[in-house]
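Annex B. Sample input.
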Amino acid sequence: METFKDNLIKKFGKDNLEKIQQARVGIAGLGGLGSNCAMNLARCGFKKLTLVDFDLITAANLDRQFYFLDQVGLAKAEALKSNLLRINPDLEIVHLVKKIEKANIREVFADCDIVAECFDHAENKKMLLEELLGTSKFIVAVSGLGGVGSSDEIKVHRLKNNLILIGDLKTDIQNKPAVSPRVNIAAAKQADEVLEYVLSN
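Annex B, continued. Sample output.
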């Protein structure tokens, strides 16, 4: 019977899959963006993930995040690890139930080659970029995914060699709600950019 790994080798080739499996990706925030980005990465063969969020799952998260009703009340980091292991039991996951702050962000993602910025609030996004942009890490951030429709406006913006920004750059989720379709489009684009970066380097 064909295994999960066998199928990925057919798609990417053995050498490329090894590159994918050797890269460690940090996910900063495990809400709509982070949980779905991590899910897409796991399905693409990424094995080494660092999942970080201090928050607990609520029923209000279930409309757009990769969690289930029976996980309400659990820490997002722990629940997401459990969900991802159901896709691939061979994952090497570091999960931290911790608030990411200026004082700890470099330490939290010290061994990550890539960081996906998946915060809700602009001040946290800004902090991550200020602290990590000067490092060698490849960063995929998001700005502008709120609302419904006009999904073709969620674009990939290549700002620096190590910085990608995804979104329409205008629809703040504080003014227009984050709804599953556009959140998932942005999260999938984050994962796709991570995959492209790893395969091309």
